[in-house]
Structures are given as structure tokens and as C-alpha cells.
Amino acid sequence: MTARVGVVTFPGTLDDRDSQRAVRIAGLEAVPLWHRDKDLHQVDAVVLPGGFSYGDYLRAGAISRFSPVMESIIEQAKAGMPVLGICNGFQILTETHLLPGAMLRNDHLHFVCRDQKLRVENTHTAWTANFAQGQEIHIPLKNIDGQFVADERTIDELEAEGRVVFRYLDVNPNGSLRDIAGITNATGNVVGLMPHPEHAVDPLVGTGGSDGLGFFTSILRKLVKA
Amino acid sequence: MARVVVDVMLKPEILDPQGQAVQRALPRLGFDGISDVRQGKRFELEVEGPVDDDALARIREMAETFLANTVIEDFVVKVES
């Protein structure tokens, strides 16, 4: 018996298939969820994948945040269900205020697509338990609205509580404050990041690494082997 | 029908790279003397019925929860006659 991980598809989502595949490679059951369906089909965790949901109209994630499926996800996330937001998923999570801060256009105004080095700074979340503290990983990054901002007090709070989960190394690709690539909520069940772990789960594809697999084996450990 | 306008602007302390890019392009196009540009969004709402205090309160709620992200943006609601 394995656990069920839902992967949401919004109109304009791009990475739902890769996310489902990553979930399966880790040994979990991937359950497709549809944005108009409030029913979460008894999933144990949810991945909000990358893309340009609702065309990123208004603001990235602003319209998806009010979709029927998100109502259920917000409710369950507050009750402790693990949620991982990748790229557009991270933007949606900041729009719901499950995660603090907001995402702006990259400071250099260009779309960026590169292999990005990150440092894992918090291994106590539902999605990072299988990494080592301070581990350096390489996963792809691709976005135009990736500049993480929040007021000084919020950032200080995140730092003090160890809620910065990932930091950009070598290059800050989008102007994010204090090189922040990903954060978590106070209880560690909700994690959002701009880079794409689901694109780095198979040594045969991409740059040959599988550093992204750790996200999905972490949630397997949390849900099944805890 | 009355029109209500909601202007949404990035907060002053938030860097606006798009506005900066516009500002930097101006001298090249022969438009001198502009020291800063901030770019925002304007929403024109056609309101059915009277624009009374209740209607304006609902529009402010709409702006606060949806049209603007108050983490990074401010908004102003104006009634156009």
C-alpha cells in the first residue's frame, strides 16, 4: 500500500505530466486533480506544478488561487496535508497566503532557463527530509516572474525560524531577496520553490542528474515509512 | 451605469524593473527630463445600479482580495462621473 499524491492541472499548467511521473518514479501513486473539481479524491499530499495557469493574467497565480480545487487544498493544507508548489505552484501558494511574500518579474526582465545550484537549508519539512542539511543540488530553473520579495520583517522572521528551505548558489537568477529560492510555512507541510525538481528525477533526461527525486522520496518517507 | 476605476500600483518600497526599463528607453526616443517611471494597472468597472457606500465597500473588498496583492501593491478606488 503506497500513498496517493494529487497533481493539479489548471488551464495553462505545463508540468503536470512530469510531476506525475516524478511521483511514480519515487514509488507513489499519482492522482490527477482538475482545477474545477473540489474533490481531492482522498489524496495524502498535493503537488501544484509549474506553468502559466490562467495565462498568468492579473498576476501569476492570482486567478488559480480562487479555483474550486484550491478551496479544498487550502483547507486541507491548514489541517496539515503536505503541499509542494513548484514555480507557478509557488506563486499560487503566495497568492493564497499559505506562504508569505510575493513574486515579481525577474529583476533583469528576461525569461531565465538554466541548471541552477541550490543549497538545502531545512531538512525538517515534509518535502526535504531525505536531503542532508546544507546539501548542494542541481535542478532546472525556468521562469520570468521569479523574484521573491517580502517586507524586511517577514524575511527576518523566515530566517529566524529556519523557514528558508532553499537558497540560490553561485548565481541569483532573478533578484530574489537574500538569494531565497524556496520557503516553508510554520508547520513545514507547505513548501514552495521556483526551480523544478520534477524535471530532474531521471539520469537519462536533462543534465543527467536526479537531485530532484529527493523531494518525492521525502514525501514517500513522510507518508508511508514514517 | 456608473464607472468605478481601481488603480493598482506597486508599493513605493517595491522595485519596479518594468518601470525602470521604460524610463531608460525614454532618452533614446528623444523624451528627456523624466527622472522616474512607475508602471501600474487600471481597472474600469461598469457598475449596475447605484454606486452607494455598500457598492463601494464591495469594490474595495474586491480590490483588496483580488485585483491587488496587498503584499506588494496599493490600490485607489475612484468614482468617475
Automatic annotation (TrEMBL), chain A:
GO terms for biological process: 'de novo' IMP biosynthetic process. GO terms for molecular function: ATP binding; glutaminase activity; phosphoribosylformylglycinamidine synthase activity. Its main location: cytoplasm. It comes from the Bacteria. GO terms for cellular component: cytoplasm. Part of the phosphoribosylformylglycinamidine synthase complex involved in the purines biosynthetic pathway. Catalyzes the ATP-dependent conversion of formylglycinamide ribonucleotide (FGAR) and glutamine to yield formylglycinamidine ribonucleotide (FGAM) and glutamate. The FGAM synthase complex is composed of three subunits. PurQ produces an ammonia molecule by converting glutamine to glutamate. PurL transfers the ammonia molecule to FGAR to form FGAM in an ATP-dependent manner. Part of the FGAM synthase complex composed of 1 PurL, 1 PurQ and 2 PurS subunits. This is Phosphoribosylformylglycinamidine synthase subunit PurQ. It comes from Streptomyces zagrosensis.
From TrEMBL, chain B:
It is found in: Cytoplasm. Keywords: ATP-binding, Cytoplasm, Ligase, Nucleotide-binding, Purine biosynthesis. The keyword Membrane does not apply. Part of the FGAM synthase complex composed of 1 PurL, 1 PurQ and 2 PurS subunits. The gene is purS. Part of the phosphoribosylformylglycinamidine synthase complex involved in the purines biosynthetic pathway. Catalyzes the ATP-dependent conversion of formylglycinamide ribonucleotide (FGAR) and glutamine to yield formylglycinamidine ribonucleotide (FGAM) and glutamate. The FGAM synthase complex is composed of three subunits. PurQ produces an ammonia molecule by converting glutamine to glutamate. PurL transfers the ammonia molecule to FGAR to form FGAM in an ATP-dependent manner. It is an enzyme of class 6 (ligase). GO terms for biological process: 'de novo' IMP biosynthetic process. Its EC number is 6.3.5.3. This is Phosphoribosylformylglycinamidine synthase subunit PurS. It comes from Streptomyces zagrosensis. SUPFAM superfamilies: PurS-like.
